Amino acid sequence: MRKGRTFIISGPSGVGKSTVLKSLLAKRDNVYFSVSATTRAPREGEEDGVHYHFIDVDMFRDWIGKNEFLEYAEYVGNFYGTPKKYVDAAMDAGQDVILDIEVQGAIQVVSKRPDTVRIFIAPPSWGELERRLVERGTDSPEKIQKRLLRAKVEFQTAHTYDYFVINDSVENAVRELDAIMTAEHCKPTERMEIISGQ
Ligand code: ADP
Ligand code: 5GP
Hints:
By secondary structure, the chain is of the alpha/beta class. It has eight helices and nine strands. The protein has helices at 17-27, 57-65, 84-92, 103-112, 126-136, 141-155, 170-185, 192-196, and strands at residues 6-10, 31-33, 36-38, 52-54, 69-75, 78-83, 96-100, 117-122, 163-166. A five-stranded parallel sheet has the order 2-7-1-8-9, sandwiched between helices. A four-stranded mixed sheet has the order 4-3-6-5. The longest helix has 16 residues, at 170-185. Residues 13-19, 132, 135-136, 167, 169-170 line the site of adenosine-5'-diphosphate.
């Protein structure tokens, strides 16, 4: 059976991760997007169970205690975590798994599962990142500044990732992500059954 791979997508808030991933998911088969749990309030248009599992801090702590998370982290005043059971079920079913998570969570996942592929998505410029955050209209000016500060810190870890994609246009970014996922499935280690069967 086809083996699923796990792909981490990290990058500054507002760079376009959700936008790009929506197009990528429409393009590729056999991909499971991991729906995270968060204590942040839903934005307009976000649905519980689709974009996030929106839970309160007490429940988040309860899930930590029950070892429900593959990883979790605090980000600009809220908690975010990846529920383990859905990721494992998707992997068992041979699906690729995409985790849209920030850098602290990425480190935790890689330490537990070293074969995870890490992709960093960057904006074409800092000015464009700020423009996208403002245009999205979901965060106060103060929150936007906090997210931009955090983005600069996260950017310093970009060189530790396996791939670096610039989201200048959604089309280009999706094409590169699609190519990366395909290439990862063409590694000999992914095809050992065929190789050792010769
Ligand atoms: P993230 O998930 O990384 O926080 P979003 O997907 O919410 O970011 O995108 C932030 C804003 O930037 C949205 O208003 C989105 O429409 C816009 N956006 C995303 N990608 C691009 C792009 N390549 N060019 C211009 N605007 C973009
Ligand atoms: P946002 O509030 O903009 O939706 O997300 C803020 C940040 O949290 C983004 O960098 C996003 O990748 C990250 N994030 C979302 N879900 C998770 C998660 O489950 N774990 C971790 N560590 N980060 C997450």
